[in-house]
């Protein structure tokens, strides 16, 4: 019975010490950036501003 009690206490306390990384709350925008091998699009949810740059998948 004592082993079960010790295990239960450890199981209940362990999550208190777990640290998770929070998502960054920073947004970077470059409305006037130079684009090379890509185009400005706005067909995906989640972007801000006038759109996002969709680059071609090129080798190299």
Would you mind describing this structure in some detail?
The protein is an alpha+beta fold and 60 residues long. It has a domain at 30-60. The protein is 20% helix and 13% strand. It contains one helix and two strands. It has a two-stranded antiparallel sheet.
Count of DSSP-assigned helices: 1
**Number of strand segments:** 2
Main pleated-sheet profile: 2 strands, antiparallel
Structural class: alpha+beta
State the oligomer.
single chain
What percent of residues adopt helix (DSSP H or I)? 10-25%
Beta content: 5-15%
Distance between the termini: 63 Å
SSE sequence, one letter per element: HEE
Question: What does the average pLDDT come to?
Answer: 75
Spatial order of the strands forming the largest sheet: 1-2
Low confidence ranges: none
Briefly, what is this?
The chain has one helix at about 1-15, and strands at about 40, 50-55.
Give the helix/strand layout.
Blueprint: H1 2-13, E1 38-41, E2 52-55
Antiparallel strand pairs: 1-2
Keywords, separated by commas or semicolons:
single chain, 60 residues, alpha+beta, two-stranded antiparallel ribbon, 1 helix
């Amino acid at each position: 019975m004592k082993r079960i009690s010790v295990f239960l206490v450890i199981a209940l306390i362990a999550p208190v010490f777990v640290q998770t990384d929070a998502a960054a709350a920073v947004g970077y925008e470059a409305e006037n950036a130079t684009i090379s091998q890509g185009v400005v699009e706005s067909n995906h949810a989640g972007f801000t501003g006038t759109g996002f740059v969709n680059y071609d998948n090129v080798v190299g």
